[in-house]
Design goal:
- By secondary structure, this protein is α/β, with parallel strands linked by helices.
- It folds into two domains: about 90 residues; about 100 residues, RlpA-like domain (Barwin-like endoglucanases, Beta Barrel).
- About 45% of the residues lie in helices and about 20% in strands.
- It starts with a helix and ends with a strand.
Length: about 200
C-alpha cells in the first residue's frame, strides 16, 4: 500500500476515480503474478524434467544444419520422446459408431485368391507396396471405413479397401502378407467395431 501511496502522491496526482482504476490495475497485475505464475512455473518445470529424461539430445549444430521445417520436426519428435515412454505414448480415443458380428477370414495377394492384379485392391490401393496388414475386404461397408476387431487384433485399425465375391455379403476378409499366416488364421466369428 505504501507503493500506491507514493505513486498517488509523488508520481501522478490522481482524483478518486483514477485512484480506483489504478488500484484495480495493480490488483490485476498482482493477481496474475500470484495466481498464474506458480502454475506456469510448474508446467515449465515438468517440461524441463521431461526434456532432461529424454534419450535423444538434439545439438544446436544438428538444428542449424537442417531446414526450418526439419528442425521443427526434430524438436517436436524429441519432445514426444521426452514426455512419454513407449508404454505411455498418447493414445487417440476411438469412437465406436456401431458393432456387429461377422465371419472373419484372411487372404493374400495371390492370383488364385484375388484377380490378375493381386496387389491392387478394388479401390486401387497397392497392399504389396504398403506392406501394412491394415486392409480388409468387406462388401457391406463403404471404402475407407475404419474398423477394429478387438477380439482378434486388439486395437489395430483396419481400412476397407477391397471387395469379396458377391456370395460373401456379410464376411470380412483380412489381408495378410504371409500365406501361412492366412492359412493358420482360418475362419473365425468375431465382433467388428466401425469407428470414426
Amino acid at each position: 500500500m505504501k507503493i500506491l501511496q507514493l505513486i498517488k502522491e509523488e508520481v501522478v496526482p490522481l482524483n478518486s476515480k483514477h485512484n480506483l482504476v489504478l488500484a484495480l490495475i495493480v490488483a490485476c497485475i498482482f493477481q496474475f503474478a500470484l495466481f498464474y505464475a506458480p502454475a506456469l512455473a510448474d508446467e515449465a518445470i515438468e517440461q524441463a524434467q521431461a526434456q532432461a529424461a529424454s534419450d535423444e539430445i538434439i545439438s544446436i549444430d544438428t538444428i542449424k544444419s537442417q531446414s526450418i521445417d526439419q528442425a521443427a520436426a526434430l524438436i517436436v519428435n524429441s519432445e514426444l520422446i521426452a514426455s512419454s515412454s513407449p508404454e505411455q505414448l498418447p493414445t487417440k480415443e476411438v469412437k465406436v459408431i456401431r458393432t456387429s458380428t461377422h465371419t472373419i477370414t484372411a487372404y493374400n495377394s495371390e492370383p488364385n485368391q484375388t484377380d490378375d492384379d493381386p496387389c491392387t485392391t478394388a479401390n486401387g490401393f497397392n497392399v504389396c507396396q504398403s506392406a501394412q496388414e491394415d486392409t480388409i475386404a468387406a462388401n457391406f461397408l463403404k471404402f475407407g471405413t475404419k474398423v477394429m476387431i478387438p477380439e482378434l487384433f486388439g486395437d489395430r485399425v483396419f481400412v476397407v479397401r477391397d471387395r469379396m465375391n458377391k456370395r460373401h455379403a456379410n464376411r470380412v476378409d483380412v489381408w495378410m502378407k504371409d500365406y501361412d499366416d492366412a492359412v493358420h488364421f482360418g475362419i473365425k466369428v468375431a465382433k467388428i467395431q466401425v469407428i470414426e
